[in-house]
Amino acid sequence: MRYPLWRIGVFVATMVWPLFWLYLAWADLLGPDPGKVLVDRLGLGTLVLLLITLSMTPLQKLSGWAGWIAVRRQLGLWCFTYVLLHLFSYCAFILGFDWSQLGVELRKRPYIIVGTLGSVCLLALAMTSNRYSQRRLGIRWKKLHRLAYVILGLGLLHMLWIVRADLKEWVVYAVIGVLLLALRLPPLARRIPRLMVKKASSAKKA
């Protein structure tokens, strides 16, 4: 396994946060409604992890270091884990596992449908993130995993619907998402490797 310490560090870092939030909720340190705070933090954590995962390829192209790609799949799976915890926390702390309230919640908060759709798409990516699926799907695998940007759009819409009164934080994530999407466009995607080659040539000459 390449970059073992880097992989372990990423694993620990991504595992610590939900455990820390659960501890804060258990210790009653998340305010008067710890369940809702926990749901919100896990949802935001999912979005942040998705942005970090999508940034691995641009970082690899810019830096030339393969370590970014080495943890991309791990980060993607952690992103899926976070969204599962987010959904479970919602069912536990908001619904109280009372499924009769789900219809009422969907009518009052249609953004739940958007979030659920994004979660289903994440499930598809998580289930096909292994090498067997890559070999089995071939060129279709890359097309399928471009769903990550659709998921990002759904996640941003989900968050926008929730935080309509205060858009400052949402704008930051939206700008980062747009930048990452722009870097995937063919003109920029071709330009980055050329810039890196020129930079490496200049460094050798110096």
Write structural notes for this entry:
The chain contains eleven helices and no strands. The chain has 206 residues and is an all-alpha fold. Helix 4 (72-94) runs antiparallel to helix 6 (111-127). The chain is globular, with a radius of gyration of 19 Å.
Give a quick summary of the entry.
The chain has 206 residues and is mostly helical. It has one domain. It has helices at residues 4-26, 34-63, 67-70, 72-94, 102-108, 111-127, 131-137, 139-145, 147-162, 168-183, 186-205.
What fraction, in percent, of the residue positions are helical? over 70%
Number of strands: 0
Q: How many structural domains can be distinguished in the coordinates?
A: 1
Biggest β-sheet: count, sense, barrel?
none
User: Quick one: overall form?
Assistant: globular
Give Rg in angstroms.
19 Å
How much of the sequence is in beta strands? under 5%
The averaged pLDDT comes out at 87
Q: Which blocks of ≥5 consecutive residues have pLDDT under 50?
A: none
Topology as H/E string? HHHHHHHHHHH
